[in-house]
Amino acid sequence: MTDVTTGQIAGAESAAPTSRRVALKRVLGPAHVWGLGVGIVLVGEFMGWNFAVGKGGAIAALTACWLAGILYTCVAMIDSEVTSTVAAAGGQYAQAKHIIGPLAAFNVGLYLVMAYTMLEVSNAIVTGDLIEAFVHNMGFVGDLDKRAFMALTIVFLSFLNYRGVLATLTLNYVITAIAFAAILVLFVAVKPWAPGETLKHSDLLTGLPYGGLGILAAMHFGLWYYLGIEGTTQAAEEVRSPARSLPLGTMTGMMTLLIAATLTWYVCSGLMPWEYLGQAVTPLYDAARLTGSGPLELLLFVGTLFATLASANGCINDASRAWFAMGRDRYMPVWFGAVHPRYHTPYRSIVFFVPIAILFAVSTPLDQTITLSILSGLLGYTIMALGVIIFRRKWPLGSISRGYVHPLHPLPAALLLLLCSVTYLAVFLGYGTQLLAMMAFYIAASAWFVLHRYKYCRRGDQFTMPWPRPKGY
Questions:
Q1: Which whole number is the average pLDDT over 396-425?
Q2: How far apart are CA 31 and CA 310, in angstroms?
Q3: Helix 294-328 and helix 347-363, axial crossing angle in degrees, nearest 10
Q4: Structural domains in the chain?
Q5: Among 95, 160, 128, 71, CA closest to 377
Q6: pTM of this prediction?
């Protein structure tokens, strides 16, 4: 880990009169890692996943849910090994920097920032829609501008992140637990032990309306069940015991999400026809309304609201850490590599994305922001799979200390590459223009980095791990 001195923080400004070191604080434990990972992702059970139903029907969405679960289990296993070894801010960016090289690291950093910022924007959009729907359901008939709630959500959570990571992720842990409990309460309330009484699966499940192609198409939004669990790595530099906390928090988070995803599909597919479910903005809240229970509707309103807030909160944390790490290494202007002298947070990186997120939230449809986030995540997973293969070849087991060793290598990496390829095809079927536009953007950004930005980087200062020379060097 490389601390940031006050001189580095000032950048082009006048040098500070003291050499006091200002760095990120190691204050987090496994529960905070769980709260960060699940907090970012649990919103995928409250919204977004159901667009997979519209792509291929309820059965196709369930199949996509489990296939995506395998994909993200591979991600979690690979992440747990590499991150417990490369415990630095920036997560996958720091891993690519040490294992592959500068250009890969630059791209991975952009993937992370785009994925988390678009996920944050999606959460803000849903927060605005949810509050608008709830207020109208309560009988309010006046004009209500949901865009104000979108902007307020982003500003408020950015302020929390500005003030400190411990309080931010402690809040995430609490509200994520409440949101998960809301899913369990809804599951019990619909009486799954009495088929046909509340849940109408026998009437509503219609097989595969678009055939096997529907399963492929559903993989696009199937990733939304789990997108962001890899965000646990962004807190690596602020965790007290990375070798223990990161694998434990990430893997238990993945188990939590697998359970929540299956329960969510089961409840919603038994209460709503697939034609409606496939386009609903807040499916779990709608499911609670269909039960006719006022308290249950209120609980799922709170659960959905807490899930969106927890996810947006974690996304701000993760995007700012990735951008901060890139600034510290001069992949971006060093001005972004500043740590607040009092709150020990990457405050400039946090503030920088506030207007960008608000602009996207008030101007872009939800399915578009979700797609942008998924595409950026997919690109990152592809490099992650290649990176762990290179990591094992350069530093075989026994050559360096690892906090965790994932089993069955290289099977998880090969499986991850296969499922990513399938999902690229699924995205292309429905959003080919966005896929090509995103690829063109990242190619142009890579050219900018190679031709202009790389000359400012201090490559020798980037490699902070005390490792021996790689095998074959």
A1: 92
A2: 14
A3: 130
A4: 31-457 (1.20.1740.10)
A5: 71
A6: 0.86
